[in-house]
DNA sequence: CGCGATACTTTGCATCGCAAAGCGCGCGGC
DNA sequence: GCCGCGCGCTTTGCGATGCAAAGTATCGCG
């Protein structure tokens, strides 16, 4: 079966932004989209099951990319960094999500055509 | 808003297998699930928009992880590597996909609660 | 023959994820 | 009142990895 010219890049999923498409950062962004009021560093750490260092690094990357904003303040005389999705970040994340949905759809379509390919291997 | 103990790891998505969760390999696996009869190296290369070296490396990784099988043969006096999903590979990919769906659902739920958070910021 | 094209593989580099160690600063014990 | 523990976060170091450019091998064609 030859691949038609039309199919060129059919499954390349260019929209999968490297900054977003990363387990830890995907976790962070999903957490944030679910908590529009923002989340404190320790909460984020727990929700995403990340170590301090890890979360710190990923937040820096996300901030650099202007996907999140970090508000460093004080709460009960302790430092407290509150993290929020930026408007642009929300937009880009939703775009990314749309591509993910496409992946899911592409697979679902195929899985449906061959629900148990081990028994009727082409 | 404090995060309850229950929410611990709520968004950690442990099921996002590092081997699968990678733009290029995700492309390859999706292509393969859509073509259960297997795909030749050049076809895969076109579908995923990958360079030779890139595809070669990723296929090696996928084979190492026993997600795909590589059948190196000859066709018209030219080497031809045909690539197929293994049964285990298909299973693990579908598991991965289930987690992706969860991500999409989590986000959709949140986006629905605040369709345009830029206008009514918290 | 030799030149180009096809089908890969290997090498090299620059990036990046991750964990361990480090830093600053309140607070409680003594 | 200083001392050390703990919390909140940052920096450092390293091993792994994605990616592209270069390399190898074989075939077809003039």
From TrEMBL, chains A, B:
<protein>
    <recommendedName>
        <fullName>Winged helix DNA-binding domain-containing protein</fullName>
    </recommendedName>
</protein>
<dbReference type="InterPro" id="IPR036388">
    <property type="entry name" value="WH-like_DNA-bd_sf"/>
</dbReference>
<dbReference type="InterPro" id="IPR036390">
    <property type="entry name" value="WH_DNA-bd_sf"/>
</dbReference>
<dbReference type="InterPro" id="IPR027395">
    <property type="entry name" value="WH_DNA-bd_dom"/>
</dbReference>
<dbReference type="Pfam" id="PF13601">
    <property type="entry name" value="HTH_34"/>
</dbReference>
<feature type="domain" description="Winged helix DNA-binding">
    <location>
        <begin position="25"/>
        <end position="104"/>
    </location>
</feature>
């Amino acid at each position: 079966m030859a691949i038609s010219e039309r199919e060129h890049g059919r499954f390349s999923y260019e929209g999968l932004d490297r900054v977003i498409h990363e387990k830890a950062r995907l976790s962070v962004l999903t957490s944030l989209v679910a908590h529009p009021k923002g989340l404190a560093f320790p909460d984020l750490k727990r929700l995403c099951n990340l170590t301090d260092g890890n979360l710190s690094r990923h937040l820096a990357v996300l901030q650099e990319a202007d996907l999140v904003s970090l508000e460093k303040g004080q709460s009960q005389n302790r430092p407290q960094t509150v993290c929020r999705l930026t408007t642009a970040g929300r937009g880009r994340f939703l775009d990314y999500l749309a591509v993910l949905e496409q992946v899911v759809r592409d697979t679902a379509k195929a899985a449906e055509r061959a629900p148990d390919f081990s028994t009727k291997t082409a």
